[in-house]
Amino acid sequence: MNEENFGRIHFMQLKPLKIGKWEVPIPIIQGGMGVGLSWERLAGSVAKEGAIGVVSAVGTGYRFPELVKRDRFGRPLGEHNTNSPKALKKIIQMAYDIAGSKDAVIGVNILYAVTNYGELVKAACEAGAKLIITGAGLPLKLPEYAKDYPDVALVPIVSSARALRLIAKTWKKKYNRLPDAVILEGPLSGGHQGFKYEDCFKPENQLENLLPSVLEEAKKWGDIPVIVAGGVWDKKDIDKFMGMGAAGVQIATRFIATHECDAPDVYKRLLLNAEKEDIILLKSPVGFPLRVVKTPFIERLLSGYNGWKGCVSNCVVPCNHGEEAKKVGFCIADRLGAAYLGDVEEGVFISGANGYRLKEQGIISVKELLERLTKGE
Fold this sequence. Notes:
377 residues; alpha/beta; TIM Barrel; eight-stranded parallel sheet; 13 strands
């Protein structure tokens, strides 16, 4: 892929990003956001402009309810319907149609914690995903599930040099393979964090302080490209981290406030009206702190309300068929699904720590956002 093919944006002094066999002129990965924030429209539009578009594999049954079995309340039944491989394949194919070229680079973000992880990896590879990005746990078995697709780049998300070392050591020993790149995610990201609650606020765990040790570890394994994520907001941030040695950045929250984002309009309006204090961390059934926007449901939850209504999805391993959901007071599949359906009263709406700054941006196109990120306007 070159600037002739994807020349809609004239970026300034940013090097192309190469991951495995794939290269894009704009060194930005659009973060995978589920449920329903980054599906075909967003991922396809980002890839069309020369960055890496990413489809979220979480909750795909909500995108095509006619393809899955549901209960009488409309909730997908079981992991194969909640995180539907069939729906995921359809989303990926539609994303390529929007991108307008099979040369576009589209990846899939698959949480390692989901119950049918291996099944989703294989489905993504079969559908033509060029990258598999995985966080929410250490994906020590990822190469096993992607072994029949050597061209698919494997990109784990880590929060420390120690995590990268363990992944690289395990993959090399068991599969004779190393990560094609690694995403270092700091504690300002939206969704689940790779740190305990109290550790999210420690200076040593902030992205700029984590990066040097991760870069050093990456070099030991053949100079694995390191992409940074979590709080990266503008061209100034991109220049800062790439100046420190990062190969590129992953940005998620800013893409919510685009016309092409798959999220419903009420989701976008909620974030545009959010203040800094409205974006908080709370306990999740997945076992990691979860960054969300305050809503009526979250307010009730913080006051002691338990909104768990039984497990029908069995979507994530750590939840143990709803046991953890019952403890924290909500099923994450149900609440993220409600957010995708536009239910402000009952949904859980995810945002990065800087989500309140979206009011400065307003709703713009993916093309304009990438122009701002690359030109510094």
